[in-house]
Amino acid sequence: MSDLVKIELLPLGRELSVARGTPLRDVLFAHGVEFPCGGRGRCKGCKVKVLAGDLPVTPEDCAKFTEAERRGGWRLSCCAQAESDLKLDLAQWEANILSDDSQFTFVPREGWGVAIDLGTTTIVAQLLDLKTGTVLGVRSALNAQAQHGADIMSRVEFAVAEHSQPVLQRLIRDQIGQLVQAVWDSAHGKREALSRIVLVGNTVMHHLFCGISLEPLSHYPFEPSQPGLQLFEAAALGWDFAPTVMVAFLPCMGSFVGSDILAGVVATRLHESDSLDALIDLGTNGEIVLGNANRLLCASTAAGPAFEGARISIGMRAATGAISEVRIENGGLRCHTIGDGSPRGICGSGLVDAVAAGLDLGWLKFTGRLLKGDTLPLADSVALNQWDIRELQLAKGAIAAGLRILLEEWGATKADLGKIYLAGAFGNYLNYTSAQRIGLLDFPMEKVVASGNTALAGAKMALFAPSEEGWLYQDLLRRSKHVSLNESARFQDVFVEEMSFPNVQV
Ligand code: FES
Questions:
Q1: Over the stretch 336-370, which tens digit does the pLDDT of each residue have?
Q2: Which domains does the chain have, with CATH numbers?
Q3: How many CB atoms lie within 10 A of CB 188?
Q4: 47: CA distance to ligand 1 center in Å?
Q5: Please, which residues have CB within 8 angstroms of residue 332's CB and are 6 or more apart in sequence?
Q6: Structure pTM?
Q7: In a mutational test of the pocket of ligand 1, which residue from 24, 26, 28, 40 has the highest number of ligand atoms less than 8 Å from its CB?
């Protein structure tokens, strides 16, 4: 028997080899998991879900989890050892799920509704009183499909190559049904009837939830087969709500630009703007919309997970021990670590800061090459290597190239842009000066608007649509055009150019 076991961590998408018998606490701590009670088995804060492999139930698990939870794979990681190969879901990553508290005008309706942002990694649901617009409850979770692949293409591959689309469909329909039930149960006082549920998500999530074949999305030209609005009765999904509860999955904008981005356009009112604005979702699959009240162009680009701190050798989520800010002080680097303890890794915002500072100090060339040894040392033993810098270059290059191609297609330049809306959690925490320095956001700062979870905000607005017709977004979609970056003769050249950092003398 080998002395090593393999551990796969989701949603990080990271695979490790560790010595058999290693305490999971040692393994997970190095990857950003916190142990709030010091690993004494008292708080449940370190819980993980076993997706594959065997992690024996301990007395502490029996004390903290119900039998159903233990059967579902839940364990306290602080009380376990890695004795065999394992695939684990890290529940603490749920803490990063971004909800929404934006205000908007609406025409009141009877009953309650639930808006859901169905992401590849995370899901968030809000329950609203449709008469007042009050948010009555929020529930979030990691997407249960993550056990079959961390990103959308690995889900497509699992669904198509392994003929397992029904498995993914059942998983997500069951999970969303439970989440709706949980957010409904969380409301106190007199309950009103649930009348409608609106979902938004990327094109793959749309097809998986709706039961539409993913096969066309697995090969060129990557066109979805039925990207439009999908309507269901709750009972038809196997959910325990009245048959009159209508469930709507909003339409996609095209190829890999889903209804989460459509909802973002609605939330930012980009489609009503007098100026030429852009909406950018800085995710693993970076989506960009450019437009105004006359027309809209949209595209998606594979940015990779560097902005989330994933696939970085010392990357971790924004938790205790993560370097979240880096600045220059006395000719060296000064790092702020979340929790003010010893640094254990770096999150996305710290990564952008560190590279920006490395460029200003002349420790990094504009091509991304490290100039002082093999690493960019940050604090204690935490350092970035050449591969980490490349991952960030790939991510920022993909976004910048996508935007440039859309601007060219429009016949405009960056200078013509009015507002740039940044969707998603990363946009909220990012230091814009650093983002500007590395060429990720090459705009005057006053134009950049951190817009939060615009997908959820747009889904909430859709709950107030006067009729089902309002969910078609016919006018908006008629004015929008999907630009396939794959088919752009210039994309590769522009992408390579945009991978470099701005070559400025400091
Ligand atoms: S760290 Fe508190 S139960 Fe594991």
A1: 988 767 888 888 899 999 999 999 999 999 999 99
A2: 4-94 (3.10.20.30), 96-270 (3.30.420.480)
A3: 8
A4: 7
A5: none
A6: 0.81
A7: 40
